[in-house]
Amino acid sequence: MLSTGIASAYDRDPRLIEVILSQTKRIVRMRDGILIVETKGGITCANAGVDESNIQEGHAALLPKDPDGSAGRIRREILEKAGRQVAVIISDTFGRPFRMGQTDCAIGVSGMGPITDYIGTKDTFGRELRVTEMAVADELCGAAEIVMGKASRIPAAVIRNHSVSPGEGSANDLLRPRGEDLFR
């Protein structure tokens, strides 16, 4: 069994490896006990987002099956209960190639466009911007994580006075198409 072989090679619990593989579309790389995979939802991350931190011993947390749908349900519930139209972002902590440390990234989005496109606009010196598209949903996730803290038991943050582009974007809008990916 693949999970037993990987678990043995990395001195990991084969049950955990089996859970990781159950969430995996393809293995991108394995090294130093970490599996970098593409999840069934299309996100490339460590261990398919399966997490043993901040959860009871012997259990693991999985990424939502439909993070955009989950964000949409939370958004509708806030509208229903509070009468407020808000954008909702679901995030997870990710490492980044070529950078140390982790940051939170959007894995689910509802009520906003996750990217602000500056292509065709002018910079402060009047030059036309040709490639600038800001991953505003990821940037908001990083800011929220600073407030929530990794182990502070604060599950959500409210960000006020930020002008997001209303709309029905998806976290999938943040995934670079394979044909434009310089690293695969």
Blueprint (SSEs and pairs):
Layout: H1 2-10, H2 14-22, E1 24-31, E2 34-39, E3 44-46, H3 67-82, E4 88-96, E5 99-110, E6 116-117, E7 133-134, H4 136-148
Antiparallel strand pairs: 1-2, 2-3, 4-5, 6-7
What does this structure look like?
It is built from four helices and seven strands. α1 packs across α2. By secondary structure, the chain is of the alpha+beta class. It has helices at residues 2-10, 14-22, 67-82, 136-148; strands at 24-31, 34-39, 44-46, 88-96, 99-110, 116-117, 133-134. It has two domains: 1-63, CofE-like domain (CofE-like fold), CATH 3.90.1660.10; 65-175, 60s Ribosomal Protein L30, Chain: A. It is globular, with a radius of gyration of 18 Å. The mean pLDDT is 91. It starts with a helix and ends in a 36-residue tail after the last helix. Strands 1-2-3 form a three-stranded antiparallel β-sheet. One of its GO terms (molecular function) is coenzyme F420-0:L-glutamate ligase activity. Keywords: GTP-binding, Ligase, Magnesium, Manganese, Metal-binding, Nucleotide-binding, Potassium.
Tag the structure with descriptive keywords.
metal-binding; two-stranded antiparallel ribbon; 2 domains; CofE-like fold; 184 residues; globular; three-stranded antiparallel β-sheet; 60s Ribosomal Protein L30, Chain: A; 7 strands; alpha+beta; ligase
